């Protein structure tokens, strides 16, 4: 991010002279507003720390918002500068998060709804005396409760929890609860693929397949069970596997 430099106004004369032109009263007021409220901007930036964006960047964004507010402030409008500057600074910070801070980017309407929720939560808290429920927020903003729930649930999309984050009593981490490839899925898929081909075998051939691939018996043990020699069992298995390959288009397990 480009640094926002807070410096007093200095204007060069139109003649090209390097001497600074006199500073107007408006410029002096703007400079005073900025310099007086620097800590306010920095403290607002700190409220958004630990959300995945460096604090220095947040401070620069807050100072940019402060500068914009100071330039736009009309002292004759009848309101205090802070009441004008705080929403401007907050808007710059939230806009920065909206555009640059998402690790996982939800739909734009949900992002915008989350920003609207953030603007009314304090008001609803003061009105109801407790943290507003999703139904309270939905009624106030005239939106669906489901959308409010979705918007509230994406709060962690700025900084997903690290896999090393302790959970429970602290003896386990989040990574310990991640799923892993389940070999049973492969076995189930193979069974579904093989079932039509095996169904076409004779009862004796199906028994040989069962003894070989389910009970994992040796060819000699299979021969004793079905009344064949070991050599005959070998030939029968080769024929069965060829038949299965023909049915499956060349995809079958080998003995």
Automatic annotation (TrEMBL):
<dbReference type="InterPro" id="IPR013324">
    <property type="entry name" value="RNA_pol_sigma_r3/r4-like"/>
</dbReference>
<keyword id="KW-0238">DNA-binding</keyword>
<dbReference type="InterPro" id="IPR000943">
    <property type="entry name" value="RNA_pol_sigma70"/>
</dbReference>
<feature type="region of interest" description="Disordered">
    <location>
        <begin position="1"/>
        <end position="21"/>
    </location>
</feature>
<keyword id="KW-0731">Sigma factor</keyword>
<dbReference type="InterPro" id="IPR014284">
    <property type="entry name" value="RNA_pol_sigma-70_dom"/>
</dbReference>
<protein>
    <submittedName>
        <fullName>RNA polymerase sigma factor</fullName>
    </submittedName>
</protein>
<dbReference type="Pfam" id="PF04542">
    <property type="entry name" value="Sigma70_r2"/>
</dbReference>
<feature type="domain" description="RNA polymerase sigma-70 region 4">
    <location>
        <begin position="199"/>
        <end position="245"/>
    </location>
</feature>
<feature type="domain" description="RNA polymerase sigma-70 region 3">
    <location>
        <begin position="115"/>
        <end position="181"/>
    </location>
</feature>
<dbReference type="Pfam" id="PF04539">
    <property type="entry name" value="Sigma70_r3"/>
</dbReference>
<feature type="domain" description="RNA polymerase sigma-70 region 2">
    <location>
        <begin position="33"/>
        <end position="100"/>
    </location>
</feature>
<dbReference type="InterPro" id="IPR013325">
    <property type="entry name" value="RNA_pol_sigma_r2"/>
</dbReference>
<dbReference type="InterPro" id="IPR036388">
    <property type="entry name" value="WH-like_DNA-bd_sf"/>
</dbReference>
<keyword id="KW-0805">Transcription regulation</keyword>
<dbReference type="InterPro" id="IPR007627">
    <property type="entry name" value="RNA_pol_sigma70_r2"/>
</dbReference>
<keyword id="KW-0804">Transcription</keyword>
<dbReference type="Pfam" id="PF04545">
    <property type="entry name" value="Sigma70_r4"/>
</dbReference>
<dbReference type="InterPro" id="IPR007630">
    <property type="entry name" value="RNA_pol_sigma70_r4"/>
</dbReference>
<dbReference type="InterPro" id="IPR007624">
    <property type="entry name" value="RNA_pol_sigma70_r3"/>
</dbReference>
């Amino acid at each position: 991010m480009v640094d926002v430099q807070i410096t007093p106004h200095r204007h060069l004369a139109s003649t090209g002279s390097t001497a600074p032109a006199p500073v107007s009263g408006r410029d002096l007021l703007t400079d005073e507003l900025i310099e007086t409220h620097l800590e306010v901007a920095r403290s607002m930036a700190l409220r958004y720390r630990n959300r995945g964006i460096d604090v220095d960047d947040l401070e620069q964004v807050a100072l940019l918002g402060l500068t914009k507010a100071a330039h736009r402030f009309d002292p004759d409008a009848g309101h205090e500068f802070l009441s004008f500057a705080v929403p401007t600074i907050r808007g710059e910070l939230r806009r920065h998060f909206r555009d640059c801070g998402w690790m996982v980017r939800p739909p734009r309407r949900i992002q915008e709804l989350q920003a609207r929720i953030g603007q009314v939560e304090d008001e609803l808290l003061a009105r109801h005396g407790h943290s507003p429920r999703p139904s309270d927020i939905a009624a106030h903003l005239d939106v669906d409760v489901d959308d409010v729930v979705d918007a509230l649930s994406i709060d962690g999309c700025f900084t997903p929890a690290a896999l090393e984050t302790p959970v429970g009593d602290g003896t386990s981490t989040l990574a310990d609860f991640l799923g892993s490839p389940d070999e049973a899925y492969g076995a189930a898929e193979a069974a579904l693929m093989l079932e039509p081909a095996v169904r076409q075998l004779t009862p004796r051939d199906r028994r040989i397949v069962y003894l070989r691939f389910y009970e994992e018996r040796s060819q000699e043990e299979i021969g004793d069970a079905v009344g064949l020699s070991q050599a005959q069992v070998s030939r029968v298995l080769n024929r069965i596997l060829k038949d299965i390959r023909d049915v499956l288009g060349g995809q079958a397990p080998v003995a």
